[in-house]
Every structure is written in structure tokens, then in C-alpha cells.
Amino acid sequence: MMEAFVLIIVKPGNEDLVYEKLNDIPQVKEIYKVYGEYDIIIRIEIENIKELDSFHDEILRKIREIEMTETLIASSYRS
To answer: Coiled-coil segments, which residues (predicted)?
Structure first.
């Protein structure tokens, strides 16, 4: 299992709509509305890079209110 954080910029005024759309997606485990350069940050759980690709292509890119995303794949500091 992999974990990633997706930082999302939304078209102005569409934050609540994007939140609602993301809230129904099983891979999305947490959603935060944030202030600053990004509007929303989500934590997702996926099985592998292939599933991450599918998540981006088949889910995020189909939400027209999303202008841009940046994905951070989580790593552990454990030795």
C-alpha cells in the first residue's frame, strides 16, 4: 500500500464542489481545505504507481473545476 498527498488548485469559487466530488472517492482518505497557494490537500491510499496513474487520469483529470495538482508520494523516515 502506498500513500500520497495531492495538492490541488481549484477554479475560484468551486472549492466546495470539488470537496464534495472528492469525498465520494474510495482512495481519498482525508481532505483538507487550506489557505495559501493551494486550495485543497488530499491524502490518498493506492496499491502501486499504476493505480496512482489511474487515479490521476481517470478521476482527478475528469474534475473540470480542478486547475492544477501536485502529487507528493509519501515516504517513511523509519530505518
So the answer is: none
> 23-45: per-residue pLDDT in tens?
999 999 999 999 999 999 999 99
Q: Provide DSSP, 12-69.
A: TT-HHHHHHHHHT-TTEEEEEE--SS-SEEEEEEESSHHHHHHIIIIIGGG-TTEEEE
Name all domains of the chain by residue range, CATH numbers in brackets: 2-73 (3.30.70.920)
The 8-class DSSP code of residue 1 comes to -
Under a CB-based contact definition with an 8 Å cutoff, are residues 22 and 55 in contact?
Answer: no
Side-chain half-sphere exposure of 41, counting CA atoms within 13 A: 10
